[in-house]
Amino acid sequence: MLSKLLGQGAGGLVLLALTAYQAAAQGRVGADSLAVATAVAAATQQYAQEVQPESVLFNGPEYVNRTLAGTIGHPFFESAEPQAGDLAYRSAHFQGVPLRYDLALDQVVLSYPGQAAAVQLVPEKIAAFSLGSHQFVRLLADSATKSAAPTGFYEVLLPGPVSLLARYTKRVAQTTVQQNLRLEFRQTDQLYVRTPSTLAPVD
Which domain holds residue 19? Predict the structure, then answer.
């Protein structure tokens, strides 16, 4: 099925992208946390100086993390702490804003500078956003083509006419350990190949 989507000679392109994706996933573990923290702090300071409370960024409901106490892990992409990113929202572009991406809710969260409060951005108003070097776009399910890809946010791993995307989700798994209930977030990654007319999962 994949070869039909990509056409002659494109299989090597996807194989190369898959290899790069696996290498990037391994590299996340060894990221320089100090550099990330410094970048987020600088972005938050600039953001607090430039963005006012009445900004369109704050026209959304308050975000509430409803993770039960004792749950192992967190629902966010890579880090539970805000990451400096760019945002295309309500036909405007914002740079260096502190964002988190809740994979359990498929929800982008904006942290208010200097406060613990956070805003839940309206998904339909988000065209794209970034977290560090990761670029995400929002795609709509296409019932006309019976696409298996749901509406939501996808990371662009390999851009182009034939692109490789990744869809991330997290769910809370329940297990019993020595008669005690254990709750733990587990992440699922699904790759998709996108052409001008199709969006299909990579099996």
Answer: 2-201
